Amino acid sequence: MSRTHFESHIGAGSRLNWLRASVLGAQDGVVSVSSIIVGVAGASDSRAFILTAGAAGLIAGALSMAAGEYVSVSTQRDTEKALLEKEREELATQPEEELEELTKIYESKGLSRETAHKVAEELTAHDAFAAHVEAELKIDQHELANPLHAAFASAGAFFVGAIIPLIVVIFAPSDYRISSMLVAVFFVLIITGFLSAYAGGANKLKAILRVLAGGAVAMAVTFIAGKFLGGLGI
Question: Furthest-apart CA pair in the chain: how many Å?
Answer without folding.
Answer: 79
